[in-house]
Design brief:
With 201 residues, this protein is mostly helical. 73% of the residues lie in helices and 0% in strands. The radius of gyration is 17 Å and the shape is globular.
Length: 201
């Protein structure tokens, strides 16, 4: 859990020393019990942000195999799949998640919007994102990009303004550090959407 929360802290400070602390915690946890599904899942989660996607897939897959009905592990797998060119598979996982637990936390909608955005289903991205409450600054950024991709300029600018209200030092290039993808074109799709909405580099 310390590894998980340290990654969340990394999303705020974008300091790779923070990410290194998360990795150390996850590795220590797994060394204490190699059969603990949560430990495998969290190590995989950390490895995503090092762009060590094959290792991340191995550990998250191990977590799912140890506890196939756990919705938390399934959502981590969907996050990974959306980042390695398997967005449709990510959506299929999320559809199964709802059948197991209809009381989804906000992150469910964030992950659903991530997969939909990379399938270029921007209307559906917006519908999913609007289900979230509360929304973080990065959620407003994705909304801004989706509106921009649809040519809905006023709404895109309004969401961009909300990003900057919540995080005045927001930078597209800094954000890229917390939003890795195996295929650079997938990352560009997001970052160019931010720029279209008027967010600063």
């Amino acid at each position: 859990m310390l590894a998980y929360m340290t990654v969340v802290a990394f999303f705020e400070d974008l300091n790779f020393e923070t990410l290194n602390q998360a990795l150390a915690s996850a590795q220590k946890a797994l060394s204490l019990d190699e059969m603990d599904a949560f430990c495998h899942c969290q190590l995989g989660f950390v490895l995503i942000y090092y762009e060590r996607f094959e290792e991340a897939e191995l550990h998250i897959g191990r977590a799912v195999s140890l506890n196939a009905n756990n919705v938390f592990f399934a959502m981590h797998q969907a996050n990974l799949f959306a980042r390695i060119g398997k967005a449709q598979e990510a959506l299929e996982i999320l559809d199964l998640v709802v059948l197991r637990d209809p009381l989804m936390p906000p992150v469910y909608w964030e992950l659903r919007s991530l997969a939909l955005f990379h399938l270029q289903r921007y209307d559906d991205t917006i519908k999913a994102m609007l289900q979230m409450n509360p929304r973080q600054y990065w959620d407003h950024a994705v909304l801004a990009a989706a509106y921009a991709r649809l040519g809905r300029e006023a709404e895109a600018r309004a969401e961009a303004a909300e990003v900057l209200r919540m995080k005045p030092d927001f930078s597209v290039l800094a954000y890229a550090r917390q939003d890795p993808f195996r295929d650079p074109a997938d990352q560009r799709r997001v970052l160019d959407g931010f720029r279209m909405a008027g967010l600063p580099d």
